[in-house]
Amino acid sequence: MKSTASPFLNGVPELLALQVLRGREMYGYELVQAIRERSGGTFELAEGVIYPVLHMLEREGALTSRRQTVNGRSRIYYALTPDGDTRRAALAGTWQRMAAAIEGMLKEPRHA
Amino acid sequence: MPDPFARLHEALLRGGMPPARARRAATELREHFADIVDELVDGGVATDVADHLAARRLGDLDLFATQLLADRRALGFAHRFPLLAWLAPPLAAFIALTVAAAALLVTAGRAGWPLDGLAAGLGLLLLAAPLLTCWIVAGFALRRRTGWPWPLAGMVLTLLAGAALRLDVLPSAVGVTLTAPAPGPLAVSALLAILPVVVIDRLRKVF
């Protein structure tokens, strides 16, 4: 599933990034792998798409970042801020309500 | 083959992203690509195949450039407020320098210092200042890959101010006057200001 395939999926990369970063700070590649693993392969983003999301979240105060050189590679680690956690909870709540509503509609009997 | 990440870096600069931010974005994507290649090679994939697969996994760099530039908050001050960035500072700096030179001469005169040498030195400084200011403006524009209209407007305004403002040192007074710029010296200043910039810009594109 590509994250930008449908307007219905707007906000999905943001929610996934915030959720995964709840555990610990990560750099971009690590974050994408974690999303893939924790979603059981359901969400396979075009991996570079994570960076516009991360930069936007950092600009809006949901994340902080720090640079570290590891084995000659420049890594920028992102960490969740308290504002970011609040944002994550709000997004998660919205998605859970949407999922419950859709599930309810799918269970409705067909109209004649 | 042109480096796609260098191309991305250029695209971000031309789109108005500040140099440090553009460099960071391009570096993050480049390092991510390298991480994917390492992962694939460690898994037994041949290097050239890994490069191709990594590019597919990473995604469309042109699309990411568009997404990164879509938020105006990611763009630099000079891109968002060109009037304030390219016109006001050079002009204000030159006017401030002229006023400071006048104030220094007045102070020196009141203190009884000989003014001839000081006036000559400040005169040379004020002659060179518009040119130096233009080169600094051009340097900023080149570094940011800014389109030329606004920086050129700032350079022209500074040269006009340099040609029009005159510092007069009289036995008992120091004054700053506004005169009509002489076309000949103005044209020479413009040539000296713009020619090196054009040469550097051409050389940069070649190399």
How would you describe this structure to a colleague?
Chain A is built from 4 helices and 2 strands. Chain A has 112 residues and is α+β, with helices and mostly antiparallel strands. A two-stranded antiparallel ribbon of chain A has the order 1-2. In chain A, a hairpin with a 2-residue loop joins strand 1 (63-70) and strand 2. The longest helix of chain A is centred in the C-terminal third of the chain and has 26 residues, at 82-107. Chain A starts with 11 loop residues before the first helix and ends in a 5-residue tail after the last helix. Residues 1-5 of chain A have low confidence and may be disordered. Chain B has 207 residues and is mainly α. Chain B contains 9 helices and 2 strands. Chain B has helices spanning 4-14, 19-42, 47-58, 61-70, 77-80, 82-110, 115-144, 149-164, 183-206; strands spanning 165-170, 173-178. Chain B has a two-stranded antiparallel ribbon. In chain B, helix 1 (4-14) packs antiparallel against helix 2 (19-42) and helix 2 (19-42) crosses helix 3 (47-58). The two termini of chain B are 14 Å apart. The chains are: A alpha+beta (112), B mainly alpha (207). At the A-B interface, helix 2, helix 3 and strand 2 of A face helix 2 and helix 4 of B.
How many helices of chain A? The count is: 4
Mean pLDDT of chain B: 88
Show unreliable segments of chain B. Answer: none
Strand content of chain A: 5-15%
Q: Tell the overall outline of chain B.
A: elongated
Poorly predicted tracts of residues of chain A? 1-5
Could you give the count of β-strands of chain A? 2
Distance between the termini of chain A: 34 Å
The topology string of helices and strands of chain A comes to HHHEEH
Element pattern of chain B in H and E: HHHHHHHHEEH
Q: Find the biggest chain interface.
A: A-B, 16 and 22 residues
What can be said about the biggest beta sheet of chain A?
2 strands, antiparallel
Distance between the termini of chain B: 14 Å
Total number of strands of chain B: 2
Question: Which class of secondary structure composition applies to the elements of chain A?
Answer: alpha+beta
Widest beta sheet: strand line-up of chain B: 1-2
